Amino acid sequence: MISSTIGIWNYWIVFCLMMIGLFLVIGRKNFLKKIVGLTIFQTSVFLLYITFGKIKGGTPPILNESIDSIYSNPLPHVLILTAIVVGVATTALGLSLVLKINSEYGSIEEDDISAQDLVDYHDDIETGKSVDLKFKQ
Amino acid sequence: MISELLINAFLVTIMLSIAIALIKTRTVIFTVILTSAYSLVAALMFITLDAVDVAFTEASVGAGISTILFLAAMAYLPKKEEESISSEFVPALSCIILGGILIWCSYDLPEIGQFTAPIHQHIAPEYIKGSKEDIGIPNIVTSVLASYRGYDTFGETIVVFTAGVAVLALLQKKDPAKKNKSQPKQKIRKNA
């Protein structure tokens, strides 16, 4: 009974970590914090996959002829190895987008940026410039 | 058995406290360092779950290269995070509800470490059995990565290449010849 509860409990921790990552993404207005949240979410998903692959009493999936042992499932490990590298690539892309936004707006706070956009929009209406063109871009 | 549980509980506590500290902190440098620490503890967690290859990749790539990228980006960005104007109640509530649903659904998941779980019955036994004769490498993860599922790895390199090209295109300095084109836009912003 206790062991079964502990078995499920590990999933709960992973879900909590995932939700903290998701909160950082949707709750925080700072873009760098959003990317950090994405990283946290990713790592938690990795943990979930690796947890699926674990076999009780198993060893790491490296063949050992001297001992007749049970190996943990290698497939999630492979998938997550790929995911880690892709995750770093997406982080790099996200960070370069943030840098670009910072050089355009001088801020990486979502509130600031939407306020600037709103001011621009009203200026355009006042000066009679075509607003449609801006939104088509 | 007990020692395994203790190590697990210890690492999990550290991870949760790092995640909560990440919500609390508003300083960018702390955020970056905490993210790095989170990846490192996750790597330790992977070792306890028998995923040694994933652990050293996470420690070198997740905790190493990502941190370098964050630090490099940090140099050009504001050092402090501003307090949000809008309320964080709705995002927090939706996260809590989603987490509750996930925890509720977790009762249908197979228990951790059970050999009878569907994931261990499908194709993994064939990989473990065939690895020695087919590829001849003792490390099963390597043989699956490079041979059985080689196309996945090929796709991964394409993704990384695309991301690299996109980063270069984004961070490119503006061509002086094209400066005239972007000037009107700048003017509007100055008026604002």
Helix/strand layout:
The complex is a heterodimer of chains A (137) and B (192).
Chain A: H1 2-27, H2 31-53, H3 74-105, H4 110-127, H5 131-136
Helix pairs in contact in A: 1-2, 2-3
Chain B: H1 2-24, H2 28-48, H3 52-74, H4 89-105, H5 124-134, H6 140-148, H7 150-171, H8 179-191
Helix pairs in contact in B: 1-2, 2-3, 5-6, 6-7
Question: Which key phrases capture this entry?
Answer:
heterodimer, A: 137 residues, mainly alpha, Helix Hairpins, 2 domains, 5 helices, 0% strand, B: 192 residues, 72% helix, globular
Would you mind describing this structure in some detail?
- With 137 residues, chain A is mostly helical.
- Chain A has two domains: 2-106, Helix Hairpins, CATH 1.10.287; 108-137.
- Chain A is built from five helices and no strands.
- In chain A, 45% of the residues are buried.
- Chain B is globular and about 60 Å long.
- The longest helix of chain B is centred in the first third of the chain and has 23 residues, at 2-24.
- The model of chain B is unreliable at 179-192 (pLDDT under 50).
- With 192 residues, chain B is mostly helical.
- Chain B has two domains: 1-82; 115-176, no CATH class.
- At the A-B interface, helix 1, helix 2, helix 3 and helix 4 of A face helix 1, helix 2, helix 3, helix 4 and helix 5 of B.
